[in-house]
Design a protein that fits this description.
Elements (H helix, E strand, L loop, with lengths): L2 E3 L8 E5 L4 H13 L2 E8 L17 E3 L3 H14 L3 E6 L1 H17 L6 H20 L6 E3 L4 E6 L12 E4 L8 H4 L4 H4 L2 E2 L7 H10 L12 E3 L4 H4 L8 E4 L5 E5 L22 E6 L4 E5 L5 E11 L10 E6 L7 E8 L13 E11 L6 E6 L2 E8 L2
Parallel strand pairs: 2-3, 2-6, 3-5, 4-10, 6-9, 11-14
Antiparallel strand pairs: 1-7, 7-8, 11-12, 13-14, 15-18, 15-20, 16-17, 16-19, 17-18, 19-20
Helix pairs in contact: 1-7, 3-4
Length: about 400
């Protein structure tokens, strides 16, 4: 299928820019301002202090969620004042606690490994934040962020229909592409979304920021959604429940400290000695057991996923082939995607129509809870959550 990349905001248009204080969003706001757009900056306020702040060395800029949030807001405020940009801080902390933090802990405790950044984009950055903009009665033509991605529209209808929704396409800079994080943002939201850095390399972004004397050019990028110092506090509402490590034959070979501390493919921190290195193959929340195996036993020929988000809600009518990404750091793999109908032995409660993906080549450490993203011609054509 052929796609057309949609034009960026034109001079004179009103553009809301989601700002974090980082170089990408700051330069985005500056480029739009210089283009002649009426720019309005907005920042999400996530931190509400319900997790006690940790006294530690000043290294919180590597995470999105933390007590240094006010410093980020102050930097955005100063930048906007210097460039004549209207600026607002929107409190989305209650939504973030419910949709991201509670989801994160619940998924881990059920033996899954969630991706909180994908969840945040869907419900907070492109959800609660925009709802907050609407409450402020801010009228805008476009919503822009500093993500490395592009917005395209198919030149013909999807899956035999007449619908031609806005869709997410990979950025020019493949090394910084963020389409995986944006995979579950619905098409109706994407109608007004644009990504001004879609055709700019990260190295050029840094150079442009330096030439503009932006303080953000020297900032470190966020590496995770929360500083590791706060992980224990997130799970502090109730104690971990230790259980057994077992091998693939069901023999007990050690004790784990609670299933929320582990993920599929993990090797370090197991504390189990054996004739060969052990890796986490499966997490059984019902039995409170973790199955360990050799690395070669973690390959999968297929997976089943559900809870799909399809562009414009248009579900494929038949089996198709796509490039599949099973986690952020994995390479895409060709797979056949077909509707899955569970038999009587499958007691799983699926969220909507489940789909089976059969890979051309086996994939390592397919992980329940992670997002499966489907691409055709570098465009996101669907996204589900891996079940098994």
């Amino acid at each position: 299928m052929k796609y057309t990349q949609l034009p960026l905001p034109e001079s004179g248009s009103t553009v809301v820019v989601g700002m974090s204080g980082g170089v990408d969003s700051t330069l985005t706001a500056l480029l739009l301002k210089e283009k002649g757009c009426n720019v309005i900056g907005v920042t999400m306020s996530l931190w509400d202090g319900h997790i006690p702040a940790v006294e530690a060395e000043k290294a919180f800029h590597e995470a999105c969620y933390g007590p240094d949030e006010q410093e980020n807001i102050d930097e955005c405020t100063k930048f906007c004042e210097e460039h004549g940009i209207e600026y607002h801080v929107i409190d989305v902390s209650s939504d973030y606690n419910r949709e991201v933090l509670d989801y994160f802990t619940a998924e881990y405790r059920s033996g899954k490994t969630p991706n909180p950044c994908i969840r945040c984009n869907r419900f907070i950055k492109f959800g609660a934040l925009l709802a907050g903009v609407k409450k402020l009665n801010i009228k805008f033509d476009y919503f822009c962020t500093g993500h490395y991605a592009a917005i395209v529209r198919p030149e013909e209808g999807l899956w035999g229909t007449e619908k031609r929704p806005n869709m997410i396409s990979c950025a020019s800079d493949e090394s910084k592409d963020q389409t995986y994080f944006l995979c579950r943002v619905p098409s109706e939201i994407l109608e007004k979304v644009r990504f001004p850095l879609s055709n700019i390399k990260k190295s050029d972004v840094i150079e442009l920021a330096k030439k503009a004397n932006l303080k953000a050019a020297a900032r470190k990028e966020s590496q995770d959604f929360i500083d590791i110092k706060y992980i224990d506090a997130l799970f502090g509402d109730k104690p971990s429940v230790p259980g057994d490590f077992v091998n693939t034959q069901g023999k007990v070979i050690g004790r784990h400290k609670g299933i929320e501390h582990y993920t599929i493919g993990q090797r370090r921190g197991l504390g189990v000695a054996g004739p060969v290195p052990y890796y986490v193959k499966k997490i059984d929340a019902e039995k409170n057991q973790i199955v360990l195996a050799e690395k070669s036993e973690l390959n999968s020929a297929s997976l089943i996923a559900d809870d799909f988000v399809w562009p414009a809600g248009v579900e494929p009518r038949e089996t198709f082939e796509a490039s599949c990404k099973i986690r952020l750091r994995s390479r895409t793999a060709i797979g056949k995607i077909e509707r899955y109908t569970p038999d009587e032995s499958d007691k799983t409660e699926y969220k909507g129509q489940a789909w089976r993906v059969t890979f051309d080549e086996e994939q390592y450490a397919v992980t329940p809870g992670q997002s499966l993203v489907l691409y055709n011609d570098n465009v996101v054509v669907g996204s589900g959550i891996i079940v098994k």
